[in-house]
Task: structure prediction
Amino acid sequence: MADNNVRFVELRSSVLYLTTLQKCSATEALERLIESTGKAAQSHGIRRGLILTVTRGDYSAVSLSTLLQAYQDLGNPKDVIGLDLAGDEEIGYPTELPRLFREAKDRFGLGMTIHAGETGRTENVWSAVELFGADRIGHGTAAGKDPKLLEMLSSNGICIEVCPISNWLTGAVPPNEAHPLQQFRQYGVPFVVCSDNPAIHQRGLADDQAAAMAEGLSIADMRQQYEIAKRYSFIEEID
Result:
């Protein structure tokens, strides 16, 4: 990130996966994550916030409760800025999960980002906004084919986290199709270019920005990206 001149970053992390790897409690894993990322961010002069990820599935409500308990055990640390729902969009989740997400958002003032529309199901994007109260949508590529959905996202100021390289590698955008970011721009849907799994894909933010420019974004568009990122970030008071 420092090599890509990143000044602030939001890091998604599956704390519950870390508990398995490190054979510790969720509270211990979150505490270690806060400490390690905090030291790294400070050493490079980067502001960072943590987003806690819940994976779709039968136990997602339990997972959310476990994460929130760890968060409270540590005194509601300001390092944690948001919640995320991720995982296979074809997998269901408990009916009470959207309500639990909204309650956590209201109670703790956390931002809400939902992975939705990455697999072509526009209804997941609708649900992310209408049921979960999402502030941002992760990927959202399916929205590019639904004008009504694009109008809803635009009118509600819901920001889409665009990850061009990841979308091509995962097949969310077929190799013979243009990325829907041009549809987002046409309908006035706010979006910010992001990197996704940079350690796995071996591509950083600069690579995704270059990919976005190859899809038609101008230098002026890219200059606006920093301001858009600040506006929709869950991190407060970014210079």
Notes: Residues 26-44 form the longest helix (19 residues). The radius of gyration is 17 Å. The mean pLDDT is 95. The chain has eleven helices and seven strands.
